[in-house]
Design brief:
- By secondary structure, the protein is mainly α.
- It folds into two domains: about 170 residues, Arp2/3 complex 21 kDa subunit ARPC3 (Orthogonal Bundle); about 110 residues, no CATH class.
- The protein is built from 13 helices and no strands.
- α3 runs parallel beside α6 and α11 crosses α13.
Length: about 325
Amino acid sequence: MPSGRNLSIWFACLSVLVLIFTGAHLNPLGYLLAGILAPLPVLLAGWRLGNKGALSLALAGIAFMLALKPGLEILWNNLGFLSLLLMGVLLSVLQNQGLSAIRAILATVLILGGMALVLLLGQAFYQGVTPLALLARYGAEIMETVHQVLGGGGNASPLIPGVSQAETEAILQRLLPGLLVTNTVLVAWLNVVLARQLFFIATGQKPEPPLYFFALPEWLIFGVLAAGFMMFLPIASMRVISLNLLLVLGVLYFCQGVAVVAAWFNRLGLPRILRVIGYPLMFLNPLFFLIITLGVLDLWFDFRRLHQQPDDAGGGIQS
């Protein structure tokens, strides 16, 4: 591909990245979209231009932020956006190194999760507070942001009917670690799915292997059983840990359930427009929990007949 073409693609990705960052600071809905789509331009640049393209685009995004307001304060206030840029770089680099999409997603989540933990402990030590107190503060900030996105402000009605805002914040504080991990998993997964679709539209080449071959290792079900058993222990901290584990594992099995449905969509040759409508519906209650159940049952019923595929078929994580 000519260098001029490379430069055009790079600047197009940079323009989208700048638009996402600017929109996040102008409108609460833009903030929400930025929290989902920020890694996408970096990931696409990495696939089309290589690792240097992804890294240079992320650095250009940081340079744009510093141009708006020189100093470390703007970087500190936008750590979430920086982590999304890093997510795009990691997803691109890991897949360019030969990892399957699923393994790249899980590796990215582990790296970002480890960095977030180190940052949390370091900030707690620097401020002289406990990590739990810092988590409580972050939980309150997240609740305020959610109310702003919903347009209700600080005096909005409770998010959960029949549960006060204080009780909701207490629940959020206990589940915040699991929520952060599951959010990272879903954002990484959605960006990979969108990038693959855009790559196909732009080049006409279907990315391989298909994501609908995704399968969790069979031994992971013992983690679900262990987390469920911990719920009955008379130790509050263990119950909190079990809730967070169940939250994370539930989202992983949701991804497997979506893979099962995607395989059925592909087998039936469902039109693209129906798929575009069908996938978002899976995130709604009660379909969300039905998809999780489908992902768990796939362990025993093997709905996609993956045992007939080679071990590395589709990049699924086989036991």
